[in-house]
């Protein structure tokens, strides 16, 4: 087991959502591409940038009270 202390401040918890948000967004975009041939992934990929920007914005606005920095 690792003795690393994981930070549980609001800013770090929101930052941990980046991977799932990107994965879900890409999945939804490909699903839309398969269902509606007038909307292709090539036209909808900027939505992925909006999703990433939304997570980063929420992370920057969140409180970092109680932040535990890693000592690597």
Question: Your description of this structure?
Answer:
Helices cover 61% and strands 0% of the residues. It is mostly helical and 72 residues long. It has a domain at 16-60. Helix 2 (18-35) runs antiparallel to helix 4. The longest helix is centred in the middle third of the chain and has 18 residues, at 18-35. 1% of the residues are buried. The model has no long low-confidence stretch (mean pLDDT 87).
Low-confidence stretches: none
Give the CA-based shape. Answer: elongated
Largest sheet: none
Integer average pLDDT: 87
Query: Helical proportion?
Result: 55-70%
| H/E element sequence | HHHH
Based on DSSP secondary structure assignment, what is the total number of beta strands?
0
Strand content: under 5%
Question: Structural class of the helices, strands and pairings?
Answer: mainly alpha
Total number of helices:
4
Radius of gyration: 17 Å
Distance between the termini: 16 Å
């Amino acid at each position: 087991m690792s003795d690393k202390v994981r930070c549980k401040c609001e800013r770090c918890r929101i930052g941990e959502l980046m991977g799932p948000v990107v994965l879900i967004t890409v999945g939804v975009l490909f699903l839309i591409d398969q269902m509606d041939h007038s909307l292709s992934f090539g036209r909808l990929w900027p939505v992925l940038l909006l999703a990433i920007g939304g997570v980063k914005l929420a992370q920057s606005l969140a409180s970092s009270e109680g932040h535990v920095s890693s000592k690597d």
